[in-house]
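Methods, example record. To illustrate the input and output format used throughout this study, we show the complete record for RNA polymerase sigma factor. The sequence lines were provided to the predictor; the line carrying structure tokens was produced by it.
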Amino acid sequence: MLAVRDKRDRDAFSALFDHFAPRLKGMMMRSGTPAHQAEEIVQDVMLTVWRKASLFDPHRAQVSAWIYQIARNRQIDIVRRERRPEPEDLVEDCEAEPDASQIVALEQEATKLKNALALLSDEQREMVEKAYLGELTHQEISTQTGLPLGTIKSRIRLGLERLRHELKGMR
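The corresponding predicted structure is encoded as:
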């Protein structure tokens, strides 16, 4: 492994592959992975070993432990991916168009929100708009404005408290 890590030695990697590939495949198959999938995992693991050989530290782990850990993690990733439920197709309900009262109610809420935003200080309004209307993270706002992260968070928190107070009776 050290020759692979330090010199990118292909012969040393070939020896590693010949030693670990059948053992990894056996481990995968004993845990219930089909043979074809076990072979794919082994190929992927050994490719990872080649690519990330520079990360191997003999003081932290033995070669076998390091390679088996990579294999185990890869197997877990594949199992999780397979068990992830498929999203259902969304069906549009063409008949569910909003009626006039819903449209008017939304317009009234938007007007109240606009008026409540106008009551905020310029600094608070700017931060709330960037965070919620501009969909920026606090860190992005800090980077953009040059203000400290704590200042950004405080202004947003104070602005939201004021908005909550102003819009208390809406819902």
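Annotations derived from this record:
The mean pLDDT is 87.
The two ends are 65 Å apart (CA to CA).
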